[in-house]
Design goal:
The complex is a heterodimer of chains A (325) and B (216). Chain A contains 9 helices and 15 strands. Chain A is an alpha/beta fold and 325 residues long. By secondary structure, chain B is α+β, with helices and mostly antiparallel strands. Chain B has 7 helices and 5 strands. The radius of gyration of chain B is 27 Å and the shape is elongated. The chains are: A alpha/beta (325), B alpha+beta (216).
């Protein structure tokens, strides 16, 4: 019987990190307060001193702290990113989660003892690509893009067995784009998750209330209108509603959350090493409730997820079930 | 129905100007207390947020400045222009401020909380406030001239009173709504029966018409 996957949980702040640990996380991941990670939102993330405290806190409780440095450095100046790797090594992080090959090379060379995980932002979508990262930089785990069916994840995990572990998202915001390569945010706002760490940056988002109707705008674009009482979603262009072929419709994806809780036994059976929760931008209540729910599900204690924490009030198993889209 | 709704109705006749002036010393004290706990996460952020309970006549203007936080009582039906506005029932705002397990994003998705204006400012303030971990002691310390033990005792009493008033309002709501709901259910059952009868008559009529056509 394969070992139980570890539960990898998001932490946007020290408070959320403690909430995740108390709720039963096996590992947590967080980023620094700059462009080096893909949740570079106002007021969020850790200073170097907070990171050091967080690592100590986690290790004292048997939880593995990982630091996301998963955006792509500037071509002319990668100092912020290499400094982030240096800081992660200095504070004793269990692993760094990187996407850029140059940064992976730096980490492998400068800190060979530092465990390297490949971010979903690298969009490594086949065993050959993952094997390259393992061979070239010593990557130990890959976070798989959210576009595979369960059978494909099983096949990938088995083909990588003994060399690279697999980690899959099981809850939270669902990105179905080619991660690390999506240009929608930079098209609408001039800033991107890949270079600036922000998808649909907050300064470009505006909500207006018009007689109960909530209008959401991203940059110069009106991307959605929610009727009075209609559940809303995040203001990303991919979850916008547009008039096409004579009807108002979601063209890329609906504003729903991923909830693959029913599939946990299949992931475990497939040999997946870790289950990941998305949501570093979410508050402590979300982190505590989601981690607690998944902990119970993993430990075979049942339970489901409160719709109050779901984007749009709805959930999907995404591409894990072949019937999706 | 919530106690805050009833409280809001009771407070509505009060003049906003004198009330705002009377609240200023307390709010200045709170702002001074909160500034160092929020400053780190609000570094580089400036702007004003109008926090407007939908069931009270008064809310707060939160000013985030390089010098620190500023708080001022404002009228919910005539708020000053600000960079952002947040509207929600008072209980929800209190729960979010005190971190009692309610999720801010979830409340926004579910349309219990409405936000307009500078989203980045609201995000940063929400995160900073959550990290500051406000609790009943913070509110108790506002009333500094009084002994802390006394204000904590008063808050516990208020908490029990809130619970009792909430239950009383629930009972009142059920007493008013239940008879109407019962009558509605009765009418719906009668409507369903009439619709079933009509459908049966339509089927009979179609069979007869088909039979007549066959005979002809």
């Amino acid at each position: 019987m394969p070992p139980k996957p570890e539960l990898v949980c998001p932490a946007g702040t020290p408070g959320a990190l403690k909430a995740a640990v108390e709720a039963g996380a096996d590992a947590v991941y967080f980023g620094f307060r700059d462009r080096t990670n893909a949740r570079n939102f106002p007021g969020l993330n850790f200073s170097p001193s907070e990171a050091a405290e967080a690592v100590s806190y986690c290790k004292a409780r048997g939880v593995r702290p990982m630091i996301a440095i998963n955006t792509f450095p500037d071509a002319t100046d990668d100092s912020a990113w290499t400094a982030a790797v240096d800081t992660a090594a200095r504070v004793g992080a269990h692993a760094v989660i990187v996407a850029d090959t140059g940064l992976a090379a730096y980490a492998a060379r400068a800190h060979p003892e530092l465990r390297l995980h490949l971010s979903v932002q690298a969009s490594a979508s086949n065993p050959e690509a993952v094997a390259y990262y393992a061979e070239a930089f010593g990557v130990r785990r890959v976070v798989l893009p959210r576009v595979f069916a369960v059978e494909q994840i099983r096949a990938m995990t088995q083909s990588l067995r003994g060399t690279v572990e697999t980690e899959v998202f099981v809850f939270g915001g669902l990105c179905v784009m080619a991660e690390g390569r999506c240009s929608l945010s930079s098209y609408a706002t001039g800033r991107s998750p890949n270079k600036d760490g922000v998808c649909s940056p907050a300064e470009a988002v505006r909500y207006e209330q018009q007689d109960g109707v909530m209008v959401s705008r991203l940059g110069a674009f009106t991307i959605n209108r929610f009727d009075d009482g209609e559940e809303a979603g995040y203001p990303t262009l991919c979850k916008g509603r547009f008039h096409a072929r004579g009807a108002d419709r979601y063209l890329f994806e609906d504003p729903v959350s991923l909830d693959a809780t029913p599939l946990l036994p299949q992931f475990a059976d497939a040999g997946v090493a870790a289950l990941k929760v998305e949501g570093r931008q979410r508050g402590k209540a979300y982190v505590a409730a989601v981690v607690r729910g998944l902990r119970r599900a993993l430990d075979g204690l049942g339970g489901g997820m409160d719709a109050a924490f779901l984007e749009g009030g709805k959930a999907t198993e995404g591409a894990y079930r072949k019937g999706w889209r | 129905m919530s106690p805050f709704l009833v409280l809001g109705l009771a407070l509505r006749p009060l003049p906003p100007g004198p009330l705002s002036r009377a609240a200023r010393p307390l709010l200045d004290t709170l702002a001074q207390r909160l500034t160092p706990r929020l400053a780190d996460r609000l570094d580089g952020i400036t702007g004003r947020i109008a926090v407007l309970p939908t069931d009270l006549p008064f809310g707060l203007e939160v000013a985030v400045t390089p010098e620190g936080l500023g708080l001022e009582l404002i009228a919910t039906d005539a708020p000053p222009p600000t960079e952002a506005t947040v509207r929600a029932p008072a209980q929800l705002l209190l729960d979010l401020a005190m971190g009692t397990g309610v999720d801010g994003d979830g409340s926004f998705f579910g349309r219990a909380l409405a936000m307009e204006g500078d989203t980045g400012l609201c995000m940063a303030f929400r995160t900073a406030l959550e990290e500051a971990e406000l609790d009943a002691d913070d509110i108790a310390d506002l009333l500094a001239p009084l002994p802390r033990s006394l204000t904590q005792h008063l808050l516990r009493l208020l908490g029990r009173l809130h619970g009792r008033v909430s239950r009383d309002l629930d009972d009142l709501q059920r007493a008013v709504v239940d008879p109407v709901a019962t009558r509605q259910q009765r009418l719906e059952r009668r409507l369903a029966a009439v619709e079933a009868e009509l459908a049966a008559l339509a089927r009979t009529s179609r069979r007869r018409a088909a039979g007549d056509a066959h005979a002809a």
